[in-house]
Amino acid sequence: MSAMGDEAGDLLALSPNDVVARVRFDAAGLVPAVAQDSTSRQVLMLAWMNEEALRATVTTRRATYFSRSRQSLWVKGETSGNSQQVAQLRVDCDGDAVLLLVDQQGPACHTGVESCFDVGGVDVR
Amino acid sequence: MSAMGDEAGDLLALSPNDVVARVRFDAAGLVPAVAQDSTSRQVLMLAWMNEEALRATVTTRRATYFSRSRQSLWVKGETSGNSQQVAQLRVDCDGDAVLLLVDQQGPACHTGVESCFDVGGVDVR
Fold it and tell me: Could you report the per-residue pLDDT of B77-97, keeping only the tens digit for each?
């Protein structure tokens, strides 16, 4: 029931309201969202969503995050072209984390590598 | 260079001090940590680490988190037996997220399913 490729936990067919109802945002109104490549299964990045970003992701099926540094919505790839088409959207058992399975265009990381987790931390950039 | 199974981004051979230096903890002293099954590549859960939990994870190679609800360290599987042996530890490009590749004993989720992302959110428990 939980094998990779299984769609039982996929909430993408729900309405934005129904998806939002399953999520518990933190005190800042945010929830962490993990993007995983739907084909390679590589974990690409972790970013944050507010309610508006989550609604936009469900509606457009393009991964949309909230930039904490810029304090604004951020459609992934809007400027770089490295967008994420969302194949599945999952929420964890406590409702306080989101998992996106995505079709990633180009590299996910702003450093030019496939995954942000290939870089090795803040001191090695 | 970033293919699954590649170990270039794995920091597990570093000292706890060197790993901690690559991480930026948030205002509460925490960093989100994603656990991914090293074999199936399924994303199992998202939890949180403080510096002590991160050091313990590097030292023991057993995934150790910080429980925000209990405000204490939490060695995954200590009571349930469903522990996580850490095969790789990665940090993202901004140093504000951790990725563990783990050998998961039993189900990762307290609901008894393999992944916390199989459950579908807070309203369906």
Answer: 999 999 999 999 999 999 999
A40-49 pLDDT, tens digit per residue, is: 999 999 999 9
Single out the residue of A107, A66, A65, A101 nearest to residue A86, CA to CA: A101
Using DSSP, state whether B36 is helix, strand or coil. Answer: strand
What's the whole-model pTM score? Answer: 0.92
Q: Taking CB atoms and an 8 Å cutoff, what residues of chain B touch A96?
A: 46, 122
For B115, name the nearest residue in chain A, comparing CA atoms only.
A2
Partner-chain contact A1 B119, CB within 8 Å: no
Q: What are phi and psi of B67, to 5 degrees?
A: -80, 115
Among A22, A96, A111, whose Cβ lies nearest the Cβ of B93?
A111
Q: What is the DSSP string of B33-89?
A: EEEEETTT--EEEEEEE-HHHHHHHHHH-B-EEEETTTTEEEETTTTTS--EEEEEE
Q: CA A21, CA B123: separation in Å to the nearest integer?
A: 7
Distance CA B98, CA B86 (A): 12
Collect the ranges in chain A with pLDDT lower than 50: 1-5, 125
Residue A54 and residue A2: Cα distance in Å, rounded?
Answer: 23
Please indicate whether, in this complex, the C-beta atoms of A93 and B114 are within 8 angstroms of each other. Answer: no
Tokens 């993990």 belong to residue: A34
